[in-house]
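We emphasize that the prediction below concerns an isolated chain of 275 residues; any contacts that depend on oligomerization or on bound cofactors are therefore not represented. The input was used exactly as deposited, without trimming of termini.
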Amino acid sequence: MPRIRLGRWLVALPMAALALATVYPLLFTTNVAMKTRREYILDRFSPTSLLHWENLTTAWNTAGMARYFLNSVIVVTFAVALLLLIGSMAGFALSQLRFRGSSALFLVCLAALFIPFQVIMVPLARIMADGGLIDTYPGLILAYVAQFLPFTVFLMTSYYRAVPAEIMDAARIDGNSLYGVYRRIMLPMGAPALLSVGILNALFCWNDVLISLLMMPSADHRTLMVGVTSLRGQYSDNIPTFAAGVLIAAVPVLVTYLFLQRQIADGVTAGATKG
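Result of the prediction step, given as a token string:
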């Protein structure tokens, strides 16, 4: 029994330290967002004596975060919809259909996961500029699809490979076309994976700064994460207001993690299924 308790403590202590390291930045940001500028300058680490909710209002109105929030919602919604549509179709084709080059195509998608965006950002910007897609919603949406599609295809292919081939054969015998098998059989069966992958892609797109900053340079088309940076400039250093903007941008992500944490965990492990 002492050895078992010691083993539990050896596991619990690092996990507690990791949890504290994860939660502390959020608590610190919330505390700073509730302070006045004078309180922050005098002592940035002490708990605030009075909650100043007006910092949230100032951040929302001063930086035009309502417009940035709407931009993020539009871009993320359409990008995730396209990712799920294309990713589910590609996953179905690569896992259930046998055609020449399918294995090589899957390896190409897998290899694309290891290419950082910084490597392709200059060619991508040139292509988008030549197509007149810079500073437009379609340009940013297509950039997100290009960046996160290999991840989506990989997870959907891994999930669909676990589906027995007999199910598809039975559907074809019943007279379904390939599109009918995909729409009536594979798409409903892949709903759990689609939900998990959709949540992960939504978080990736929502938290992105680099791609959005590259594709949306003008102030009117910024996404929320990029818009938060306008609260702190060369001649403006109101840290509590900046922290309030960061808190506003983080709330949708925190709510998503809070209510959909199981689906997020399932999405992370979807590619580990044997198939």
